[in-house]
Amino acid sequence: MADPSPLDVIDVLLVEDDAGDVLMTREAFEYHKLRNNLHVVSDGEQALQFLRREGEYTDAPRPGLILLDLNLPRRDGREVLAELKDDPELRVIPVVVLTTSEAEEDIVRSYRLHANAYVSKPVDFDRFIEVIRQIDDFFVTVVKLP
């Protein structure tokens, strides 16, 4: 059996309530011609429904990577991360916390909740695009995903 190609397409779930950040992430995927499928939900409750394939998300694909903002409505990213990593089925999905917070307590808490990486969103568009490319490159090309 052949090894999977680094060009294999994976589903990426972006959990982000800021329309501008969603747009920049979409543009980063297009700019770098990232072949992965980007799915977007705008709050923590929707994220858990998507991951558990509940409600309107019964046909949702299993993401190979989650990009998670911390400051979300309904259920914040910390709660989502805690529930995700507490679920034997979902805990294997890598989670990159992608947030504006640079607070030490948020960084430490995210890693204590078993985030796979913590990345502060750059405000500059070009840097933001590069950060998305690096995340994609690392988690999709370099790292072997379950």
Radius of gyration: 14 Å
Order of helices and strands: EHEHEHEHEH
Give the biggest beta sheet: 5 strands, parallel
Low-pLDDT windows of residues: 1-6
Helix content: 40-55%
The overall average pLDDT, rounded, is 87
Model description:
It is a single chain. This protein is 40% helix and 16% strand. By secondary structure, it is of the alpha/beta class. A five-stranded parallel sheet has the order 2-1-3-4-5, sandwiched between helices. It is globular, with a radius of gyration of 14 Å. The model is unreliable at 1-6 (pLDDT under 50).
Explain briefly what this protein structure is.
With 146 residues, this protein is of the alpha/beta class.
Main attributes of the structure:
5 helices; disordered N terminus; five-stranded parallel beta sheet; 146 residues; alpha/beta
Set down the secondary structure blueprint.
Blueprint (H helix, E strand, L loop, with lengths): L10 E5 L3 H13 L5 E5 L2 H9 L12 E4 L8 H10 L8 E5 L4 H9 L4 E4 L4 H18 L4
